[in-house]
Amino acid sequence: MDIKDTYRTLKTSPPPILFKDKNSKFFGYAFPVITETEIKEHIEVLKKEHHAARHWCYAYQLGTETISYRANDDGEPSNSAGMPIYGQIQSFDVTNILIVVVRYFGGVKLGVGGLINAYKTAAQMILEASNIIEKTINIDYIITFEYKNMNTVMRIVKEKQLNITNQKLELNCQITISVRKKEADMVAQTFEKLYEIDIKRVH
């Protein structure tokens, strides 16, 4: 079975885009995010920046294997804003992302169909303007060993081109490695076979 161990996300936040419809202005923003705290902070900043706007609608998705998402209409008719934005997150197959569309009302009602189209288009435009990158889903392991076994451990790290994210090299040594999910079991087994070397998965 082929394990899916990559995901798509934003490299950085692109400059905002503007979509206009019947005098209403829709500013689209996209941010790479990992936590709900970051999401709240971005929305607060936009509310200050666009304090005269009428709605700050958004959708986000977090996670690579366990997904959490939310779509918020922020006072627009139900499912006319947040879900169309979230639909674009799904259609571009990206995660760890927040998209906010800020609306300035132009005096002409767009109707639910018009709103759905406007929010969807603003989300699509900001995603098209984004630099989307593919990242690997990694599993971290802590390897514990005595100093005398350092060469053995480091030889495997070098052979398998493992990424060390943390190390404490004293009489008792500990290194943390980050391994691509596809290769994780194979790497763990390599270390498990060794005498006096302990490998544990970090949860």
From TrEMBL:
Domain Impact N-terminal: from-to ranges: 22-126
Pfam families linked: Impact_N (PF01205)
Transmembrane spans: none
GO process annotations (BP): regulation of translational initiation
Superkingdom of the source species: Bacteria
An annotated GO cellular component: cytoplasm
InterPro entries, alphabetized: Impact (IPR023582), Impact_N (IPR001498), Impact_N_sf (IPR036956), Ribosomal_Su5_D2-typ_SF (IPR020568)
Protein family according to the UniProt entry: Belongs to the IMPACT family.
UniProt name for this protein: YigZ family protein
Organism of provenance: Allotamlana fucoidanivorans
